[in-house]
Automatic annotation (TrEMBL):
It is a peripheral membrane protein. The lineage of its organism: Bacteria, Bacillati, Actinomycetota, Actinomycetes, Kitasatosporales. This is Amino acid ABC transporter ATP-binding protein. Its main location: membrane. Keywords: Amino-acid transport, ATP-binding, Cell membrane, Membrane, Nucleotide-binding, Transport. It is found in: Cell membrane. The keyword Membrane applies.
Amino acid sequence: MIRFDKVTKRFGSHTVLDALDMKVYSGKHVTLIGPSGSGKTTILRLMMTLLKPDEGTIMLNGEYLTHEKKGDKLVPASDKHSRQIRKNIGMVFQQFNLFPNMKVLRNITEAPVHVLGLDKDAAEERARELLDLVGLSAHLDKYPTQLSGGQQQRVAIARALAMRPQVLLLDEVTSALDPELVAGVLDVLRDIAHTTDITMLCVTHEMNFARDISDCVMMFDAGRVIEFGPPEQIFTDPEHERTREFLSAVL
Ligand SMILES: Nc1ncnc2c1ncn2[C@@H]1O[C@H](COP(=O)(O)OP(=O)(O)OP(=O)(O)O)[C@@H](O)[C@H]1O
């Protein structure tokens, strides 16, 4: 389970997350929706420990991500501790972020070999399986720039999965793609959502996709969850006026 307890994040005088409490049970797929600037990406960046909360704690499967225990005190986590817990979390970004100087196969094997210490042959075997899953077996010997944006994003998904994460964070992964490339990436993610037990936390403006894969949709406004529920309820019968306004603008 992912658990945020009273997490506050400020940038200067701007409070982006305001004592946020949030739980995501293992294996569930949760989509975060809400107006621009409501703090959705900040949540994912906190989980990747790219940001630190000003207050509050984040836990993954009973272990603190943001803190560690020293005796009976809770202190901010060292980088080493955060890295250790974060190994269980993979993230796919809007801008693929592949290593441009490495071929596709090596993009995928690099972290398993150097971070997990996996044997090179085993890492390559796993990478080939994942390239098959994302429909790119024929491209393993190419450099990222020789691929379309949609193909690069599918490599990025394979790369995240190669670490066998318990949690996959998806941050507007189709926003930078040409419209005709979006469906291929979403199909791969649907497949992963429906065939694995990975926990997914997804920020997306693709509401049909959110409807297909989500167990739960959380509506954010001004750094708080204002309502959450199954997609069929949030998309068809939201309780909150802000949710209705937001959905009528995006649907
Ligand atoms: N590193 C930063 N420094 C200063 N302000 C930041 C930083 N990162 C985010 N913010 C601000 O925090 C607020 C929340 O940003 P965040 O990216 O989490 O929103 P979001 O809900 O994901 O929005 P969008 O849907 O537009 O991506 C915004 O007002 C943003 O400008």
